[in-house]
């Protein structure tokens, strides 16, 4: 619904602009007794696919429920298209919702499930029919109108749930782990479809997930949540390659972790000692000689070569090891490399890389800027 359509509702005003954020959170806090579930979250979401990503207990689902009106914040404001909806009921917020368990009415047909929000809003039969035709075409559900949920596949059920969330053409669609119950292949198919729907409709999708692959596949921007706070918000590639906090570095991309001591600096480059091996890394300000730091290094940033099979890696950092295992993943292989002192690193490589056999001596290496570095946590 447009901002013009919102104006005129009782107590409603709109300051939204076409290029401004559709959803704004201003200092949102939410407590459950003594537990701080959300702490001072401020955020703007435009006409984009936006993911709330984090582990269980990070506050992402509570954040979505607060935006939806299913929970009331203890402090802060929620604005949708410039309108303060903080104290409004969910049905008055101009939002659509899609849940993990679909929540389809088992004794209603596809058509009846899809148009249910319009009936609740008292829309005319003509408008219900027009919107139903539109949403069935959008979600490739034509011909299934008279089927019941038990007659549908998992993907079809998911599209019906999306149809119900979109049929009122909301200003904002909220999705709470909607693909979690689908099998892997269907989930991959639906990741592409759901992203396409957002691009075609041009409305914000706010998508809650703990699945990094989903967030990185579908979203334009990601907010990583941890203990009720936004650790980092930004374009997905920025978060993946340039994490701003230790938690984001450790959480995204299944990185390896090494702890080393700073033995010298030259500008932004630090000379490190790791178990007697010299390493180089780009480190943030405030790191001084003698400090302990942690390096987070993603498997795909590490080069690997088996002894006697082609040139060894010649980047700034190189370590010798032995290949403990090779795990075939289709387009790549995961190599588990045992280093001195029993430390093991995971390295991703093309499956055609020669000499990658269990027990083979290997050399691994990475450039100076490959690792994200942060001060080591106090023991």
Query: How many separate helices?
Result: 9
Q: Biggest β-sheet: count, sense, barrel?
A: 6 strands, mixed
Ends apart, CA distance between termini: 53 Å
Instruction: Specify Rg, calculated over alpha carbons.
Output: 25 Å
What is the percentage of strand-forming residues?
25-35%
Q: Mean pLDDT across all residues, rounded?
A: 89
**CATH third-tier fold name of the largest domain:** Rossmann fold
- The residue ranges in which pLDDT falls below 50 over 5 or more consecutive positions are 1-18
CATH homologous superfamily of the largest domain, by name?
P-loop containing nucleotide triphosphate hydrolases
Strand arrangement, largest sheet? 6-7-8-3-9-10
What share of residues is helical?
A: 10-25%
Task: Report the CATH architecture of the largest domain.
Answer: 3-Layer(aba) Sandwich
Overall tally of structural domains = 2
Structural class: alpha+beta
Question: H/E order of the elements?
Answer: HEEEHEEEHHHEHEHEEHHEEEEEEEEEE
- The coarse overall form would be globular
Number of DSSP-assigned strands: 20
CATH C-level of the largest domain: Alpha Beta
Characterise this structure.
It is a single chain. This protein is of the alpha+beta class and 379 residues long. It has two domains: 3-94 and 170-249, P-loop containing nucleotide triphosphate hydrolases (Rossmann fold, 3-Layer(aba) Sandwich); 256-375, Beta Barrel (OB fold (Dihydrolipoamide Acetyltransferase, E2P)), CATH 2.40.50. Helix content is 23%, strand content 34%. The protein has helices at residues 3-6, 60-68, 110-120, 125-138, 154-166, 184-201, 212-218, 236-241, 246-251; strands at 23-32, 35-45, 49-53, 75-80, 83-84, 95-98, 172-176, 205-209, 221-226, 229-235, 256-266, 269-274, 277-282, 292-297, 303-306, 317-328, 333-338, 344-349, 361-366, 372-375. Helix 3 (110-120) crosses helix 4 and helix 3 packs parallel to helix 5 (154-166). The chain is globular and about 75 Å long. The N and C termini lie far apart (53 Å).
């Amino acid at each position: 619904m447009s901002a013009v359509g919102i104006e005129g509702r009782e107590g409603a005003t709109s300051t939204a602009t076409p290029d401004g954020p559709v959803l704004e959170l201003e200092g949102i806090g939410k407590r459950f007794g003594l537990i701080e579930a959300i702490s001072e979250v401020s955020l703007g979401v435009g006409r984009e696919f936006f993911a709330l990503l984090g582990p269980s207990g990070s506050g992402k689902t509570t954040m979505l429920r607060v935006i939806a009106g299913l929970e009331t914040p203890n402090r802060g404001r929620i604005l949708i298209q410039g309108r303060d909806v903080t104290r409004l009921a969910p049905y008055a917020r101009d939002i659509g919702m899609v849940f993990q368990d679909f929540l389809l009415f088992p004794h209603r047909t596809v058509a009846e499930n899809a148009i249910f929000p319009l009936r609740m809003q008292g829309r005319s039969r003509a408008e219900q029919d027009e919107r139903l035709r539109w949403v069935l075409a959008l979600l490739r559900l034509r011909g299934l109108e008279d089927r019941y949920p038990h007659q549908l596949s998992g993907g079809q059920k998911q599209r019906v749930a999306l149809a119900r969330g979109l049929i009122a053409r909301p200003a904002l669609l909220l999705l709470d782990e909607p693909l979690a119950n689908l099998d892997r292949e269907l989930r991959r198919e639906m990741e592409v479809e759901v992203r396409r729907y957002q691009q075609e409709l041009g409305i914000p999708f706010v998508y809650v997930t703990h699945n990094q692959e989903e967030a990185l596949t579908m979203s334009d921007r990601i907010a990583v949540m941890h203990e009720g706070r936004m650790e980092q918000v930004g374009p997905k590639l920025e978060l993946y390659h340039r994490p701003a906090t230790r938690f984001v570095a450790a959480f995204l991309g299944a990185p390896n972790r090494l702890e080393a001591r700073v033995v010298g600096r030259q500008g932004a480059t630090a000379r490190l000692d790791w178990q007697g091996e010299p390493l180089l890394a780009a480190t943030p300000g405030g790191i001084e000689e003698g400090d302990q730091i942690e390096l987070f290094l993603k498997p795909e940033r590490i080069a690997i070569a088996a002894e006697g099979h082609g040139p060894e890696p010649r980047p700034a950092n190189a370590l010798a090891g032995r290949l403990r295992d090779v795990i075939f993943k289709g387009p790549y292989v995961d190599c588990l490399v045992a280093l001195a002192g029993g430390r093991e690193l995971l390295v991703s490589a093309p499956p055609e890389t020669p000499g990658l056999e269990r027990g083979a001596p290997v050399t691994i290496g990475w450039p100076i800027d490959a690792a994200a570095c942060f001060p080591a946590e106090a023991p």
